[in-house]
Design brief:
Blueprint (H helix, E strand, L loop, with lengths): L1 H9 L12 H21 L3 H77 L6 H53 L1
Amino acid sequence: MSSLLSRNKEQPHIRKSPSDSSPASTTATTKGLRHERLSRLSSSGSSDLSNDKSTSHAESYFLRRENRLSAKKKAEEETANNDYKKMYEKAIATNQRLKSRLEISKQELSVIQDQLQRAQQKGKPGDCGSNMLETEKKESWSLKKRISDMEEQLKVKEELKMENQRLKDENGALIRVITKLSK
C-alpha cells in the first residue's frame, strides 16, 4: 500500500482544461481518476465498498456482454430460419406449378386418346376411300406420336414431383435440426 501511495505522490498531478483535451483523452483521464479514487478508498480501509463496486461493475459488464451475444445469436438464427423458410416456400410454389402442369398434361392426354379412339372407330367400317384411309392413318400416327410424347412428359413430371417431395422432406428435416440447435 505504501508503494501505491508513494507512486501516486511521485507522479505530478496535472489537470487539463476541457478545451485542452479531446473526448477520447477526457474519458481516459476520467477512468484514470476513477481508478485513483478507488485505489485510495481501498487503501483507506473501505475495501468492502470498492470490491462491491468493482464486482458489480464486472457483473454488469458480463451481463451486457452476454445480452449482446445472445441478441446476435438470435438474429443469426432468425436469418437462418428465414432462409430455410424462403427455400421451403419456393419448393412449395414449384410443386404447385408442377402439379398444375401435370393436370393440364393429363387433360390433354385424355383428349388426344379420345380423338384416337374416334379415329380408330371411323376406320373400321371400310366404306371410306383410299384417300380417307391414308389421312386417317397419318392422323392416327400423329396422334400416337403425340400420345407417346405426352407419356414421356408425364414420366418426367412424375420424376419432378418425386424430386420435389424429396426436397420438401429434406427441408423439413433441416428445419427440425435448426430448431433443435436453437434450443
